[in-house]
Amino acid sequence: MSKNQSDDMPTGAFNEGRRRFLAGSAAVGAVGMAGAAGVAGVGALTRSQPAQAASNGNGLSVHVDPGELDTYYGFWSSGQSGEVRVMGVPSMRELARIPVFNRCSATGWGQTNESLAVLGDSAQFQNGDLHHVHMSYTDGKYDGRYLYVHDKLNTRVARIRLDIMRCDKMVTVPNAHAIHGLRVQKAPKTGYVFANGENIVPLPNDGRHLDEPEHYWSVFTGIDGESMEIKWQVWVDGNLDNCNADYSGRFAASTCYNAERGVTLADKMRFERDWVVVFDIHAIERAVESGDYITIEGSDVPVVDGRGPDTPFTRYIPVPKNPHGINATPDGKYLIANGKLSPTCTVIDTHKLPDLFDNKIELRDTVVAEPELGLGPLHTTYDGRGNAYTTLFIDSQVVKWNVEDAIRHYNGESVNYIRQKLDVHYQPGHLNATLAETAEADGQWLVVLSKFSKDRFLPVGPLHPENDQLIDISGDEMKLVHDGPAFAEPHDCIMCRPDQLNPSPIYSRDDPYWEQARKWAEEDGVDLDTASTVIRNGNKVRVYLTAVAPQYSMNKFTVKQGDEVTVIVTNLDRIEDLSHGFAIINYGVSMEVNPQQTSSITFTADKPGVYWYFCTWFCHALHMEMAGRMLVEPA
Ligand code: K7E
Ligand code: RUQ
Ligand code: CUA
Ligand code: CA
């Protein structure tokens, strides 16, 4: 039953790449290899292996033996940790972390000039709340270019380049108050990034209205995924929770749990029904092109008015009270809204949406099923075989149900649409199956992100880990095969095949990421690729260093107390995995410098004396010796 993982590799290219890497690292030389092997050995001894069932009876193995590769990439959000985590599935091993709205001690994210340029006007914020992560699409399939994420805490949307797995763009969204739901246009390509403003506030929110909820609103935002420019916003009634896009490219839809526009818990639960608001992207574009919009003081973003029952831009489809997730089926036919306070999901037929906007049918005519599933439905995913899987937060279960059977039941046939209920541990939020957000849903693995782990792991004090559970859905029955503890707090994840990505093994010297450093070098008349010198301009000092294991190009450099010092380090090593770092003792300076990368950091040399700088990544047997001195002359 247990299948060799390498048999599952979609293409030989991936394995070949790995062999190339192994061959390449041999070139490090005997001394280098000894160092690297030493580090790897220590890591292997201290890391405990997760207990895994060898095979679960559905034909899939959860074993990924040492030296074997996972068959899927997972991209996990981390909620209030503010980062993205890259996981291997099915091993559930964490492969990498991508800092975005947080600060990162290892990479220098939030401190390097390159990251500060990305953080832009929001660099003042040290934190964020990253709920959703979605990949760019072409024709309904992942295209491996970018990930898009949002910050519920400081109202931002950011992009991650998947070649280097680093955030390269971040924008603060005006007029919105917390971005929650985020999805991207699936067809013809991304295209737009859609961002939901969750909380209602006065527009503009400048203090002229305070405790006057009748002036509170929220907006739906369309961002260009290429330029990351905010293209337009739709002023909506109610609030916006989660969102999704259809597979035609014309519609997006968001759940609203606060049709009441209430400001207290009791207010927000007053109505029996809230709604799903559907957006006609083409109608919004036409209005913006013809200048048929307003702007709201404090920003130039075009805003169209989508409030009311008969705008060209919106339709508000009533659904049972306080819905949460909304998920498009991989065949493009349906958008399914999850009931949360109602034990139901609402199945909306996307092919009826054009008629709805043409006023040929009524709002509820778009609903083709409303199956009763259990208590607290939050999110739904799919296996590509017609089945849906919905988390039941209150019941602590995943319920598997059949969409077409639910529709037949809604039409009066006596048919049981529930296939199975599986206990999960405990209180699940999002769940996602492999490729389920795309037209290529393949029904292999399902990950359910449980919000409480309670007794599932050794106790670690009052703050418990979350429990990311792996379920095999390849057979008729769901089988729980792995418990994965996670630090605060994954909300959502997506999974794709390794052949859908093409990460760079090393940087390319012409990468735009360090454009600023390139300009500085030009101003200073030095060649960034080889520069090893100190350039002074008044009290501004630029220090150019290169790094080749196990040495920096200068053993020391001298600055004056009070100088504004910019250290620019270029890693000239071309060997995959041979990262260096640069850190200065007692100056709080530390950053990554990966093969062929340039990184820079600026600080004030406010303390006189001798300060050693050193390499932070174990790169060589003489890594400890990879150091030098910054001499700060007293003022
Ligand atoms: Cu359900 Cu922010 Cu997607 Cu959490 S949200 S669970
Ligand atoms: S009252 S236009 Cu709140 Cu001053 Cu409003
Ligand atoms: Cu370079 Cu350690
Ligand atoms: Ca409500």
Draw up the topology in text:
Elements: H1 12-26, H2 30-46, E1 72-77, E2 83-89, E3 93-99, H3 113-119, E4 133-138, E5 141-151, E6 156-161, E7 166-172, E8 179-184, E9 192-197, E10 201-202, E11 216-224, E12 230-236, E13 243-245, E14 251-256, H4 265-268, E15 273-280, H5 281-289, E16 303-305, E17 314-320, E18 326-328, E19 334-338, E20 345-349, H6 353-357, E21 367-369, E22 377-382, E23 387-392, E24 397-402, H7 403-410, E25 418-423, E26 428-433, E27 445-450, E28 466-472, E29 479-486, E30 493-496, H8 515-523, E31 533-537, E32 540-548, E33 551-552, E34 556-560, E35 564-571, E36 580-584, E37 589-593, E38 598-604, E39 609-614, E40 627-633
Parallel strand pairs: 12-16, 32-35, 34-40
Antiparallel strand pairs: 1-2, 1-30, 2-3, 4-5, 5-6, 6-7, 8-9, 9-11, 10-11, 11-12, 13-14, 14-15, 15-17, 18-19, 19-20, 20-21, 22-23, 23-24, 24-25, 26-27, 27-28, 28-29, 31-32, 32-33, 35-38, 36-37, 36-39, 39-40
Q: Largest beta sheet, briefly?
A: 6 strands, mixed
The parts where pLDDT drops under 50 for at least 5 residues are: 1-55
Share in helix: 10-25%
Report, as a whole number of angstroms, the end-to-end distance: 73 Å
* Rg from Cα: 26 Å
Average pLDDT, rounded to a whole number, is 92
Query: Which ligands appear in the coordinates?
Result: sulfanyl-(tricuprio-$l^{4}-sulfanyl)copper, (dicuprio-$l^{3}-sulfanyl)-sulfanyl-copper, dinuclear copper ion, calcium ion
Which percent band covers the strand fraction? 35-45%
The SS-based structural class is mainly beta
The outline comes out as globular
Query: How many DSSP helices?
Result: 8
Number of strands: 40
